[in-house]
Amino acid sequence: MHEGGMFRETFTRGLWKNLPPFRLTLGLCPSLAVSTTAENALGMGLSTTFVLVFACLFISLLRRTIPGTVRLASFILIVATMGAIVEILLKAFFFPLSVALGIYIPLIVVNCIILGRAEAFASKNPPSLSLLDGLGVGLGFTTSLTLIGSIREILGAGQWFGVSVFPGWFEPLAFMAQAPGGFLALGLVLGLMNWISRKRGEVFVQG
Amino acid sequence: MDLVVLAVGAIFVNNLLLAQYLGQCLFCGVSNDLRNAVGMGVSVIFVIVLASLFTWLIDRNVLVPYELDYMRTMVFIVVIASLVQLVEIVLKKVMPALYKALGIFLPLITTNCAVLGVALLIVNQGHGFQQMLVFAAASAVGWALAIILFASIRERLAISHVPKMMQGTAIALVTAGLMSIAFLGFQGMTG
Predict the structure, then answer these.
(1) Which residues in A lie closer than 8 A to residue B177 (C-beta atoms)?
(2) Residue B116 in contact with residue B80, Cβ under 8 Å?
(3) How far, in Å, CA of A47 to CA of A116, rounded?
(4) Per-residue model confidence as pLDDT tens digits over B63-75
(5) Which residues of B touch A (CB under 8 A)?
(6) CB-closest option in A81, A188, A198 to B74
(7) Taking a C-beta distance cutoff of 8 angstroms, is the pair A144, A14 a contact?
(8) Using CA atoms, how far apart are residues A59 and A63, in angstroms rounded to an integer?
(9) Are B184 and A180 a contacting pair at CB < 8 A?
(10) Which of A29, A109, A187 sits opposite B174 (nearest CB)?
(11) Between A and B, how many CB-CB pairs are < 8 A?
(12) I want to staple A202 with a disulfide (CB 3.0 to 4.6 A). Which of A16, A197, B106, B122 is the partner?
């Protein structure tokens, strides 16, 4: 494969074929916990993308320096450093968002997507490709989160990004904004994606 | 009495898995089989209680007095990772039978967000020593309860006719959603 094609393939893989959290069933906790509104979901997605991109970049730069035996511990430390930076930045510049996301911000560190990409891709590929891979997967994750957040906010509160979208007669389905709604929305969207893939004749292995 | 309310609240009302969504990845991964689910549940209870104890002590005696709380996430994750390693080594020597039973589950727990989540929740809610122990144990029992219940349902799901597009993770998530609705019924039981 020529150079340009490889870059494009690396970037777009995260947007459909490897789309988290549907195709890679990783990173489920934040997808469900903070997707009660579209705005929270978008904020969480972008924070995760930030951590993912920089963690992939630094891990890739250090991939020849880190000895194989303490690999995972070193990766976790790098990811935790990025996580701490995001936590502090959010507190300083987006305080209401950081309150809304609560303990799920420090929990970005244990989001399996990040460690998964670090181990599967960044530890074996040059920095430029790893950066793109992180960006692709991160943006895919942000899109999915915002989608789930939108579904839950529209059905659960009759609003989208805080603006009412239904006429007065609509009775919001309160449970969509509570815990069960997250599971149901994610499960149904996943079913829909499977259906589309089946129509297009794509073969994929889930897991 | 307060401790009882705290425990019931942590097990049922704020169930770690079904209300706070912590520990999802493992939940989908190992809940295919009831035996594995029980093994995982026991390991998680063990690790969560130990990890909460150590992170609480470190937070109280090191991080807070020296104003290092911005390092909390990093310190906690390192503590949890080394603790799991340590538990693995000690169990291997002292209780080989238990080690064999828990075996593959122990390393997986390091990246289980439930462990870090409970440690952070305890610090955020400012629990004292006794409350911390009760809260950690009850949250972990709640998680184990949910995963064992879920594994039993999934064993049934495996032999029932599920529409093609919903097979696998999709139907599992919808099932979890229905369980979560059932657990919503506990809300309001404790103050």
Answers:
(1) 180-184, 187
(2) yes
(3) 17
(4) 888 888 788 888 8
(5) 18-25, 27-28, 70-74, 77-78, 81, 111-113, 116-117, 120-121, 124, 163-174, 176-178, 180-181, 183-184
(6) A81
(7) no
(8) 6
(9) yes
(10) A187
(11) 126
(12) A197
Which residues have C-beta within 8 Å of that of residue A66, sequence separation ≥ 6?
A: A59, A74, A75, A123
User: Which helix (H) or strand (E) segment is A19 a member of?
Assistant: none
How far is A99 from chain B, CA to nearest CA, in Å? 12
A contact residues 29-68, partner B, Cβ 8 Å cutoff = 29, 32-33
The residues, any chain, with a CB within 8 Å of residue A186's CB and separated by 6 or more, are: A21, A22, A28, A31, A32, A148, B173
Does A194 lie at the interface with B, CB-CB under 8 angstroms? yes
Contact B120 A182 (CB under 8 A): no
Among the ranges given (A16-30, A114-128, A166-180, B38-52), the one the predictor scored with the smallest mean pLDDT: A16-30
Over residues A142-176, the pLDDT tens digits come to 988 888 888 888 888 778 887 777 776 777 777 77
Least confident among A125-129, A189-193, B21-25:
B21-25
What are the tokens at B105?
Answer: 């589950």
CB contacts, 8 Å: A188 with chain B: 170, 174
CA–CA dist B37, B119 (Å, integer):
22
pLDDT computed for residue B53 by the predictor: 92
User: Are B169 and A180 a contacting pair at CB < 8 A?
Assistant: no
What dihedral do alpha carbons A189, A24, B148, B88 form, nearest 10°? -160
Instruction: Tell me the C-alpha distance between B84 and A11, whole Å.
Output: 35
